[in-house]
C-alpha cells in the first residue's frame, strides 16, 4: 500500500516515514501544503497523513480541495491543535480520522490500518483467501497455519492484491501502489514477484487474467481466464 505523509516538522516527518516503511508501506513525503496537495492530486495514494498547520497552504484547505475534486482516498488528520471546533472543521472538510500530537506511533499505525480496512470493506486486520491468511497488524503471512517468509516487496504485492480481493488489478496499478515516487519503477518486475509469490505460497490464489492483470481468488473459485 502506498501512503503520503505531509508534515512540515523534519524530525516528525522522518519518524513517520521510517515507521510506516518499517510497517511495510511505500511512503512519499511532503513538507508544505502546496507540494502535498499536488502529490495528492496526481498520485494514487491508498491513504494520507495530513498535518493541519502547514506552510504555504494549511491542511484544511488542502483537504477541502481534494474532496471538491472528487479525491476519495482516506485522510488521517495529524495536528497539535486540540480545540474541539478544529476537530469538527477537519471532519467536515472530509477527514476520516484525527490524531492529536503528541501521539504514540503504534496508535497512528493502528488507525491507518483501520482506514485501509474500511476502504477495502474489511472488518478485521486479517485477510483470508482460501488457505492463505495475511495479518496486516503483525505483517505476517501463513498458508494453512504455516508461516511463509516473504521479502518486503513480495509482502507489499500480496497485501495490495489481498486488499483488492476478487477484483482484477492491472500491472500499472500495482506499480503505482507498490513503489514510492523515487523508486525506479518497472512493471516487468511485477511478473517476477508474482512468480516468486506463487512458488512460496504453494497454492493457486493469484490468477493471471490475460491482457488485464492479476486477481486474488480462493482456489475453489478460481475460474478466471488465464
TrEMBL record:
Keywords: DNA-binding, Phosphoprotein, Transcription, Transcription regulation, Two-component regulatory system. Residues 124-218 bind DNA. InterPro entries: CheY-like_superfamily, OmpR/PhoB-type_DNA-bd, Sig_transdc_resp-reg_C-effctor, Sig_transdc_resp-reg_receiver, WalR-like, WH-like_DNA-bd_sf. Residues 2-116 form the Response regulatory domain. Residues 124-218 form the OmpR/PhoB-type domain. PANTHER family: REGULATOR OF RPOS, RESPONSE REGULATOR PROTEIN CARR. This is Response regulator transcription factor.
Amino acid at each position: 500500500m502506498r501512503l503520503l505523509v505531509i508534515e512540515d516538522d523534519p524530525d516528525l516527518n522522518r519518524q513517520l516515514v521510517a515507521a510506516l516503511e518499517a510497517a511495510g508501506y511505500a511512503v512519499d513525503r511532503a513538507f508544505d501544503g502546496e507540494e502535498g496537495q499536488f502529490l495528492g492530486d496526481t498520485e494514487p495514494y491508498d491513504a494520507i497523513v495530513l498535518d493541519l498547520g502547514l506552510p504555504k497552504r494549511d491542511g484544511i484547505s488542502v483537504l477541502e480541495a481534494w474532496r471538491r475534486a472528487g479525491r476519495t482516498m482516506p485522510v488521517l488528520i495529524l495536528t497539535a491543535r486540540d480545540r474541539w471546533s478544529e476537530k469538527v472543521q477537519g471532519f467536515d472538510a472530509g477527514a476520516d480520522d484525527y490524531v492529536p500530537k503528541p501521539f504514540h506511533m503504534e496508535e497512528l499505525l493502528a488507525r491507518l490500518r483501520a482506514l485501509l480496512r474500511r476502504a477495502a470493506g474489511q472488518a478485521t486486520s486479517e485477510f483470508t483467501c482460501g488457505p492463505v491468511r495475511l495479518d496486516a497488524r503483525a505483517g505476517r503471512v501463513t498458508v494453512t497455519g504455516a508461516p511463509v517468509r516473504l521479502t518486503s516487496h513480495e509482502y507489499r504485492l500480496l497485501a495490495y492484491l489481498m486488499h483488492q480481493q476478487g477484483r482484477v488489478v492491472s500491472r500499472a496499478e500495482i506499480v503505482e501502489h507498490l513503489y514510492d515516487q523515487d523508486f525506479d519503477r518497472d512493471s516487468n518486475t511485477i511478473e517476477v514477484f508474482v512468480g516468486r509469490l506463487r512458488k512460496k505460497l504453494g497454492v493457486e490464489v493469484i490468477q493471471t487474467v490475460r491482457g488485464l492483470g492479476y486477481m486474488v481468488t480462493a482456489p475453489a473459485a478460481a475460474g478466471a481466464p488465464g
